[in-house]
Design goal:
- The complex is a heterodimer of chains A (308) and B (420).
- Chain A is built from eleven helices and two strands; from the N terminus they run ααααββααααααα.
- Chain A is mainly alpha-helical.
- Chain A has one domain: ABC transporter involved in vitamin B12 uptake, BtuC (Orthogonal Bundle), CATH 1.10.3470.
- In chain A, strand 1 and strand 2 form a beta hairpin.
- Chain A is globular.
- The model of chain A has no long low-confidence stretch (mean pLDDT 84).
- Chain B has two domains: 248 residues, Response regulator (Rossmann fold), CATH 3.40.50.2300; 145 residues, Response regulator (Rossmann fold).
- A seven-stranded mixed beta sheet of chain B has the order 7-6-8-9-10-14-15, sandwiched between helices. In chain B, strands 2-1-3-4-5 form a five-stranded parallel beta sheet, with helices on both faces.
- Chain B is 44% helix and 17% strand.
- The N terminus of chain B is likely disordered.
- The chains are: A mainly alpha (308), B alpha/beta (420).
- At the A-B interface, helix 1, helix 5, helix 9, helix 10 and helix 11 of A face helix 3, strand 7, helix 8, helix 9 and helix 10 of B.
Chain lengths: 308, 420
């Protein structure tokens, strides 16, 4: 007996708990990827990141209603359409915001914090006016809720698998975009040296706009995915914003690999402590560990080597 | 059982009063002011300079309509406005129509205090209906005591408070918790409990009371107790832990957005609430809108009011509420408690024959409201309400089936001995 559990139990719980940690890891990566693109690559502190996520959630909510009303036969797969639309909606809003607000602030990164915080309040109130202050329930097809029995004692939640799948796809997509495409080269060039990039003929304004849009779009996808595990309300975005920044800053702002490493370490620490101690305690200890490590390594886990 | 006839009499009384009021209104409007019958002079009903004229009396509504808490407080605002409308249609209070001034607490406790002061000092409101979280109530309490205002507070809460200037129309913790635990222990033979909560005063105090009741009074076992930060969205670890410990009852006091995450993940983890007993005191019909009925069906909730309650008062109340606020709205426990506020204040003012806050406070104990949608309530000496406690079982359509109610009214006991 260890911690009051028998060994048989312990085996299956180890499996399920490992899986719980992986789900948390995927959730963190999915939350943080959009911000890693915006904050990490562009240096814009986007406090409205959570609200872009909730936009995705509301798009999913609208989709579920549209499909129930007009295409009930396709309801079982509506979620995938919703994810695409969520990306599109958040991407479009991102372009608009960049054009109207962010582009005027590139030389004043700290001011983006205030401006985007204001934007988050505006968006929250907008959602409240349109969808009402109450939470909305996003109805999901039955096959997405429930669990997969692997053995008698080991069960794996299906929505967790879906989040993991989605996270993998998006992560690979972002990596290819940033490190393997010409577009990614332009993005990295602009971020490393704006003037030089402009001098070699890169349309820096256009790169900025689309990059910001892509970051927001990914946030929208995350929001859409989180309707499976969380709530949809005008202020639900606030639930994610702190964890999101934590993951990105801890990983080292400019490094995507860092984001993933930090999401992994934070999620595993948290879910392990949570299992042996308790929820609040896990949060406290994880934050303490992060603060401690950041004091020793202010740049975060991974640092991009750039000549300044 | 006399409960049935008890319930019936008040409803017809309410209906009669409403009808009389409606019939009297056009006639009254035609008469010159002085000729109107039985309306006491303003100087007599208002000796402390409240906002009372010959025709109107002004009250305040103080809830969050913006910010995080707007999710929860919207229903209360709607219920209070409905009650005020109905009272006005029935002839008002002491012959005066109620006017209300609404302020937004904006989910921010200092803002609540500031707005409370504005309602009392600038607007001279005769009473205020408002607040939702304990934090907001604690913030306004000194203001109400300093400027001698009257607050009607609708939320079920942790107890440990009593003020001359507050009437608590929701249940305090022992009222809400004990009967439900007794029921589930007796009916389901529950022996082991796992207590969960969001990490702040209400769930912690409530779980403390639950634990004392389970362990000290019943001699049963609590196999786990755990708290999560407000807004926590990941519950997989604790769900795994509960799968291991296999408690007979999961006792959950999780609030806000966390609620949605918790029940969705519970379902996704394969915990079937038709087999696993789960009792909550924090999920009303309002919260189920966000959670989704299919995710919580089978759970037991313990509170004093459910929208599906079958009594004549409620059969009038639910349609009236829907007529005013839309067919799709739902009515939770707190919304109903908020509806009681204006009615209790009206009945108290008529009993006291005055709007003066001191007289209202003194006249409150013993005031009974027979038209309450929950059935019948009476104000206790400690300014809380005598009320029945009920257990409901969640259905997939987001409503509860009421499966148990206490035989008599539960006595409010905000300072329970042996539970602190």
């Amino acid at each position: 007996m260890i911690f009051g559990y028998s060994f048989g139990d312990l085996g299956s719980i180890l499996a399920m708990q490992g899986f719980a940690g992986l789900i948390l890891f995927s959730v963190y990566v999915l939350m943080a990827l959009g911000l890693a693109v915006i904050f990490g690559q562009m240096g814009v502190i986007n406090m409205a990141h959570g609200e872009f996520m909730i936009l995705g959630a509301y798009v999913t909510y609208l989709c579920s209603h549209l499909f129930t009303a007009y295409l009930p036969g396709l309801f079982a797969i509506y979620f995938f359409v919703a994810v695409l639309l969520a990306f599109a909606a958040a991407f479009a809003l991102g372009l608009l915001v960049e054009w109207a607000m962010i582009r005027h602030l590139y030389r004043r990164p700290l001011d983006t914090l205030l401006a985007t915080w204001g934007l988050s309040l505006v968006l929250q109130q907008l959602y409240r006016s349109i969808f009402g202050a109450r939470e909305v329930g996003v109805e999901l097809p039955d096959w997405m809720m429930g669990s997969q029995h692997l053995t008698d004692t080991i069960e794996v939640p299906i929505n967790g698998l879906l989040v993991m799948g989605l996270t993998t796809i998006i992560t690979i997509g972002v990596f290819l975009l940033i490190y393997r495409s010409n577009w990614g080269k332009r993005i990295r060039a602009v971020m490393q040296n704006r003037t030089m990039a402009a001098a070699v003929g890169i349309d820096t304004e256009f790169v900025d706009r689309v990059t910001f849009g892509v970051g927001c779009g990914i946030a929208g996808v995350a929001g859409s995915a989180f309707t499976m595990i969380g709530s949809t309300s005008p202020t639900a975005g606030q639930l994610y914003i702190v964890d999101t920044f934590l993951v990105v800053v801890f990983g080292g702002a400019a490094s995507l690999l860092g984001t993933i490493a930090s999401a992994f370490s934070i999620s595993q620490t948290q879910s392990t402590i949570e299992f042996f101690l308790s929820g609040s305690m896990a949060k406290v200890l994880t934050l303490l560990a992060v603060v401690g490590i950041l004091m020793l390594r202010p740049q975060g886990l991974f640092v991009l080597k750039v000549r300044r | 059982m006399t409960g049935h006839s008890d319930d019936r009499a008040p409803a017809s009384a309410l209906r009669r009063r409403l009808l009389q009021g409606m019939a009297a209104l056009p006639a009254a409007a035609l008469l010159p002011r002085a000729a109107r019958a039985d309306k006491p002079a303003t100087a007599a009903v208002n000796t402390t300079g409240l906002a009372v004229t010959d025709d109107t009396v002004t009250v305040g509504i103080l809830h969050s309509v913006t910010g995080t808490m707007a999710i929860s407080e919207t229903g209360s605002v709607e219920a209070e406005k409905l009650a005020i409308d109905q009272i006005n249609a029935a002839g008002g209070v002491l012959g005066r129509q109620i006017k209300f001034i609404q302020e937004d607490g904006a989910s921010d406790w200092p803002t609540f205090a500031e707005k409370a002061k504005k309602l009392l000092v600038n607007d001279k409101c005769a009473s205020v209906f408002g607040c939702w979280t304990s934090a907001s109530r604690k913030a306004v309490l000194p203001v109400f005591e300093q400027y001698n205002g009257m607050l009607y507070y609708p939320t079920f809460y942790e107890g440990l408070e009593q003020s001359k200037n507050v009437i608590y129309t929701g249940q305090e913790a022992t009222q809400q918790i004990l009967a439900g635990l007794d029921w589930i222990i007796k009916e389901k033979g529950a022996k082991t409990f796992y207590l969960l909560g969001s990490d702040y005063i209400w769930p912690r105090t409530s779980n403390k009371i639950a634990r004392k009741h389970i362990v000290d009074k019943h001699g049963l076992e609590v196999v786990g107790e755990e708290y999560f930060p407000l807004g926590n969205t990941q519950f997989n670890s604790v769900i795994n832990k509960m799968k291991l410990k296999k408690p007979d009852v999961i006792y959950a006091i999780i609030v806000g957005g966390s609620n949605v995450a918790f029940y969705k993940q519970l379902k996704a983890a394969g915990i079937d609430l038709s087999k696993q007993n789960l009792m909550t005191i924090s999920v009303t019909e309002d919260e189920i809108l966000g959670i989704g009925g299919e995710n919580i069906a089978g759970a037991y909730a313990c509170m004093k009011y459910f929208q599906s309650l079958d009594n004549p008062n409620n059969k009038l109340f639910v349609p009236a509420f829907k007529k005013m606020w839309g067919q799709n709205v739902v009515i939770g426990d707190v919304t109903q408690a908020a509806y009681l506020g204006p009615w209790l204040w009206k009945l108290t003012a008529e009993k006291a024959g005055s709007f003066d806050v001191d007289k209202i406070a003194a006249a409150s104990p013993g005031v009974e409201f027979k038209g309450a949608p929950e059935g019948y309530v009476r104000i206790h000496e400690n300014h809380h309400l005598w009320s029945k406690t009920r257990v409901g079982r969640a259905r997939t359509d987001g409503q509860y089936d009421v499966i148990y109610e206490t035989a008599g009214l539960m006595e409010p006991n905000p300072f329970p001995k042996g539970y602190q």
